[in-house]
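For consistency, the fold was encoded as tokens, which produced the following:
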Amino acid sequence: MTGDRVFDTPFTRLTGVRHPVMQTGMGWVAGPRLVTAVAEAGGLGVLASATMTLPELAAAVRAVKERTDAPFGVNLRADAGDAADRVDLLVREGVRVASFALAPDRGLIDRLKDAGVVVIPSVGARRHAEKVAAWGADAVLVQGGEGGGHTGQVATTLLLPQIVDAVDVPVVAAGGFFDGRGLAAALAYGAAGVAMGTRFLLTADSSVPDAVKRVYLEASQTVVTRRVDGMPHRVLRSGLVDGLERSGRWSGLVRAVRSAAAFRRISGLTWRRIIADGRAMRRGRELSWAQVLMAANTPMLLRAAMVDGRPDLGVMASGQAVAVIDDLPTCADLIAGIVADAAKAIAAQHAALLR
């Protein structure tokens, strides 16, 4: 162990962080402020680039580098039209980790690995983990159905052991984690660390408006809906979400067209690029053009809540762990507490078994 490192795992050795705790790349949430706080606390902070233009991502990477010397990562959309340009940016700037919400192709993996960047795709099924591991991914992030955002139906406790047994690379567990007992449990399953989104969103270092954080702290129920972007999306139940559930297909498409136009203005993308990205999204995922069009809803509805502070006009992605979170610690206190509590839980269990 080095310094205050309590757990020495394949994940900490691979990424160079002190603790086996990762913050996921949440759009509009995981910016330089949060990522720096996580990195300084010894975890792996990850910038969310899907809602950033390429120049904005470059500025965000440099902002983190100016604030900390600790390793950090960037989450990329493998199906983005400028994915190769973003990869080149990570290589130039010496970013330690590239994570992906969707499986990157072999070419992207090879480019990153040749430059010494650690590649960690997110997966939701055993076959996906086996595929990216065979392609050279350094580790995989496994998200069970308890997680926020786009999610599957299989619980983490069932999905995690399947993938740990199936691949020879480090596995990071996500979906339902929020404290030290969860980290201890994940390690017992064979994971090399845990990743959390909702727990880091609800910290003092998160840039999410205070009024929105209060909505999260008071929440007790999440719902998985397809009305946001045509794919399963776990969010807080709200009046807006209930309205989306009741809306017809036509009204949903009209809303999506408006969202696409608004996102085009904010992102600076041309309609040609949006259509090209849509084609890439459809490839191998059996999505209709209606679903692709609806995907424009996601960044705009999330932005309304996470940036503009209007939960009444936006959606709030959330894992099921939100029901048991009731405070807003700093990232430093959160990670230190998780690591200490995990060590205590493991020691207590060991002592109990030796009686």
About this structure: The chain has 16 helices and eleven strands. Residues 10-208+326-354 form a domain with the TIM Barrel fold (CATH 3.20.20.70).
